[in-house]
Design a protein that fits this description.
The complex is a heterodimer of chains A (110) and B (114).
Chain A: E1 5-7, E2 10-14, E3 19-24, E4 31-37, E5 43-50, E6 55-58, E7 61-66, E8 71-76, E9 85-92, E10 98-100, E11 104-109
Parallel strand pairs in A: 2-11
Antiparallel strand pairs in A: 1-3, 3-8, 4-5, 4-9, 6-7, 7-8, 9-10, 9-11
Chain B: E1 4-7, E2 10-13, E3 19-25, E4 31-37, E5 44-50, E6 53-56, E7 64-67, E8 73-78, E9 87-94, E10 104-105, E11 109-113
Parallel strand pairs in B: 2-11
Antiparallel strand pairs in B: 1-3, 3-8, 4-5, 4-9, 5-6, 7-8, 9-10, 9-11
Classes of the chains: A mainly beta (110), B mainly beta (114).
Chain lengths: 110, 114
């Protein structure tokens, strides 16, 4: 299977702390994306990092990509209760398809 | 606002009774996808259309079919739902072409099979 793996599967932190999630994948990719899914809802695209990029920022989000290790991390700084959700990495290796990781369930405690 | 719409949001059907889920988009995207997502799992791609070209995943059961009558609409037909087909069904779109494959998701349809 080409499916990526995410670590940790679940993460619980206090509001205001930083949250880090990791993603590993198996094949060469064009880009890697992160999505958020609130409970019972569809996925929302957060950020995309291309294979020739090493780091990207968007607001409180910071994504890194290490293609030599086939891994990526998503950092959410200064977490808020509204950040409580599941976060999925997705790899784009062409063919107009994404392969999603298993996701990290993030809980922000007030 | 441009968006992906799924109807209904909740669908209850009986074991073996055919059911159709619908998806529409106002993004004018070339590619439309159907995913199945079970509790605490990753979305699993069932199939996708690139324009009118249908692309089935190798492990998608024959029980699942799809139709895309025009650019805006795509349907998921489950011919004989089993208890194992209870899940969230997500529709997504992407621009296609040389664009990065960023996907835009609808809110999903939660299917219950009794």
């Amino acid at each position: 299977s080409q499916q990526g793996e995410e670590d940790p599967q679940a993460l619980s932190i206090q509001e205001g702390e930083n949250a880090t999630m990791n993603c590993s994948y198996k094949t060469s990719i064009n880009n890697l994306q992160w999505y958020r899914q609130n409970s019972g809802r569809g996925l929302v695209h957060l950020i995309l990092i291309r294979s020739n990029e090493r780091e990207k920022h968007s607001g409180r989000l910071r994504v890194t990509l290490d293609t030599s290790k086939k891994s990526s991390s998503l950092l959410i700084t200064a977490s808020r209760a509204a950040d409580t959700a599941s976060y999925f990495c997705a790899t784009d290796w062409g063919a107009q398809k994404l392969v999603f990781g298993q996701g990290t369930r993030l809980t922000i405690n007030p | 606002d441009a968006m992906v719409i799924q109807n209904p949001r909740y669908q209850v059907t009986q074991f073996g009774k055919p059911v159709t889920l619908s998806c529409s988009q106002t993004l004018n995207h070339n590619v439309m996808y159907w995913y199945q997502q079970k509790s605490s799992q990753a979305p699993k791609l069932l199939f996708h259309y690139y324009d009118k070209d249908f692309n089935n995943e190798a492990d998608t059961p024959d029980n699942f079919q799809s139709r895309r009558p025009n650019t805006s609409f795509c349907f998921l037909d489950i011919r004989s739902p089993g208890l194992g087909d209870a899940a969230m069904y997500l529709c997504a779109t992407s621009p296609g072409g040389t664009s990065a494959n960023t996907q835009y998701f609808g809110p999903g349809t939660r299917l219950t099979v009794l």
